[in-house]
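Q: Is it fine to ask for two folds in a single conversation?
A: Yes, each is treated on its own. Send the first.
Q: Here.
A: Result:
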Amino acid sequence: PDFTLPEHKAVRQQLINNGLTNEQAAWSLAALWTLSNNADIECWNLRQHHLCETRLREEEEEEEWQQHHKEEEDAAWLEERKKNKNKYVPVMHRKVPSDPTILPAQYALRKLKHYFTNGGLEDAKISTLISDVYGPASGHGPGQAEPGQSHGLMTALAWPEILKSRSRQPEPQL
């Protein structure tokens, strides 16, 4: 600042009363102001330096905390995934089937259930014995009887034994 201006006249006058000239008083005030300003600048720079260091330290602490928190979350997620494997099964992205699902009728399901019971297996065994005796309806297979002919094995198979074996096992209730 210019200490020769009229606004600084009162301060200059005190120095002039102590034996300084007007120019020496203005120069002394400028020197005092410069020293004071430099001290303030140095103090401000030091404060800014401390603020910057504090901010950097806080940012590092925040970053460390976030890293630690992320590691804890990852560990918790892995633990959750181990506990609930079925919850995290990958989903296969496929097209939705466009053909209708074919469901068998109820009577067909009951018939299938019958075939896999003891009675149904016994019926299948008897029917294979009978087809071995008579052969298929077409009669075109090798070593099979022509329609109307018999191999003579019918005499070896007793009908009462077949019916008796069938009646031994009760039919399942459907």
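Q: Second one now.
A: Result:
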Amino acid sequence: MDDSETFTQLPIRMDPASKAITTSSSSRALQEELAALNNLHKSLLQLESPVPPPPIPVNQKRSANITKLRESGNAEFRKGKHAEAIKLYALGLQMALGRPHWEPSGLVRDEVAGLYANRAQAHMAMSNWVEGLVDAEASVEAKKVGNAKAWWRKGRCLMEMGRLEEAKEWVGRGLEMEGDEADLVGLLKDIEEKEKKA
């Protein structure tokens, strides 16, 4: 009879607590294979970050929740409830930043950039210029190009705080990244006019 048509059932057991696999067989090859398998299992358990599962699509439920928090924050902002909007944006940020490391980083950057930019606007509406500046800068750090609102918001915060030279430099850098974006060009003119009056 051909060997490929037969098999030998081996006495293999798994310890329910440690998940280690053992055998009562005296086969040296089997003992070595199981030792290698158990060592691999132990080393995977010692990793600080969770072992990623096989590639799967982005967690759509998390994406939907982040979008819902951003939209709820926008609705509160439109109602003039800026403090409530800030809380909702913060929850959205917490959820976006809590994505597993194996999910696409570009998605996280886009979500975070939008939420920071929106929260900066809410802070600005309350004249919290420092907080607005910090959030706008965080938004730009997450997404430098295609984020003219965040560039404008930090420039505006700097201008409102009287830091005109920094504001002018920041808006100049924003124009380099965004091209001749109308709002940034307008803000630069406002800063220059304020400098002349100072």
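Q: Anything structural to flag on that second result?
A: Two points. The chain has eight helices and two strands. Strands lie at 12-14, 21-23.
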